[in-house]
Task: inverse folding
């Protein structure tokens, strides 16, 4: 049985897993106090099967337990095929320059996710599409214009949250102008602080001003911040910029710590400890149970040794409490909503043929 400190630390983790049911290793982590789990295409089948998995996880937890997914639209959509709506890439939505349409798209996504009992959507992407050679963002971004990204991205997020699903703006403080993919290496963005404030940070500033739910960090290094660390571990990025300058009050969640930008440059245990010290409230560890255990144990040891303060854990819990109170659904699905007249009205004019070739981002949270 987990100790009180282990349970307190476990509440800062959301994990991924293999399969379509709760195996003993996952069940043990859930019972030890995890905040939630993130679902990928590997976990999801027909709507009834997916809803059953969501319910199994929540009943295993026996407490409010968040289920998350990456459902952006375009090539990053874990729920595909009828009765789910095939939204176009966000670049296509951005070309419409219609905040009302974006808000309706957000409500539609919340409607479909909520029907399965999913609580948290790791979207919208608020990266600004300023680099045509970017290998990971590209058409996932709304626009090359920061003002358009801000206006439409906030509308998308507001639509989701009006529909009862938490949004998550990503990837702070900006992944749009990189030439590398953080799934495979550690990108570096060399822009000045002035440029970052004018372009990359603008959409996140508007998101913070709107009082929305959560922000995901970028595993990207920004030399202008004066720290030789990815933003996920940077006190300047998360403390001074996100909390101090942008006044963001929601949950700060890391991108997947098993991405090679982290796992091959500093190690997941060190990333967990330094991320907690910098201001991460929730850590995503999306692949392997042994890595998830190592990250949790590293955080427990760091708190016991005084390297991470108990006040920092309590601060994260306060933000998590707010997120859970607003968005955690009880066990049970509402699958009858899918295909209903209301569903069809929301989807009208928003559907598009999905892209071929599968989802290149399925390896981890993006």
Result:
């Amino acid at each position: 049985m987990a100790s009180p400190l282990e349970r307190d630390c476990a509440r800062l983790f959301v994990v991924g897993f293999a399969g379509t049911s709760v195996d003993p290793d996952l069940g043990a982590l859930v019972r030890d106090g995890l905040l939630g789990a993130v679902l990928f295409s590997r976990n999801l089948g027909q709507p009834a099967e997916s809803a059953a998995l969501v319910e199994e996880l929540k009943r295993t937890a026996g407490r409010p337990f968040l289920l998350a997914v990456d459902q952006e639209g375009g090539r990053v959509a874990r729920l595909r095929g009828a009765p789910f709506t095939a939204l176009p890439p966000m670049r296509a939505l951005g070309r419409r320059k219609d905040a009302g349409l974006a808000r309706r798209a957000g409500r539609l996504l919340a409607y479909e996710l909520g029907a399965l009992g999913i609580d948290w959507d790791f979207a919208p992407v608020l990266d600004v599409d300023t680099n045509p050679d970017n290998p990971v963002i590209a058409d996932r971004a709304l626009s090359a214009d920061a003002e358009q990204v801000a206006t439409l991205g906030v509308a998308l997020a507001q639509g989701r949250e009006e529909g009862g699903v938490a949004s998550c703006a990503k990837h702070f403080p900006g992944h749009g102008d990189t030439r590398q993919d953080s799934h495979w290496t550690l990108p570096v963005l060399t822009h000045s602080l002035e440029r970052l404030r004018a372009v990359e940070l603008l959409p996140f500033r508007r998101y913070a001003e709107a009082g929305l739910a959560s922000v995901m960090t970028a595993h990207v290094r920004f030399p202008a911040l004066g720290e030789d660390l990815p933003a996920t571990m940077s006190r300047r990025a998360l403390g001074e910029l996100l909390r101090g300058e942008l006044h963001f009050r929601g949950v700060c969640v890391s991108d997947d710590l098993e991405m090679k930008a982290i796992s091959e440059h500093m190690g997941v245990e060190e990333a967990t400890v330094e991320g907690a010290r910098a201001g991460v409230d929730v850590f995503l560890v999306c692949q392997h149970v042994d890595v998830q255990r190592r990250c949790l144990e590293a955080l427990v040891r760091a708190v016991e040794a005084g390297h991470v303060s108990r006040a920092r854990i309590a601060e994260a819990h306060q933000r998590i409490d707010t997120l859970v109170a607003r968005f955690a659904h009880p066990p049970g699905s509402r699958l009858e909503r899918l295909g209903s007249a209301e569903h069809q009205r929301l989807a009208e004019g928003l559907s598009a043929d999905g892209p071929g070739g599968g989802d290149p981002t399925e390896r981890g949270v993006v």
The first helix runs from residue 4 to 10.
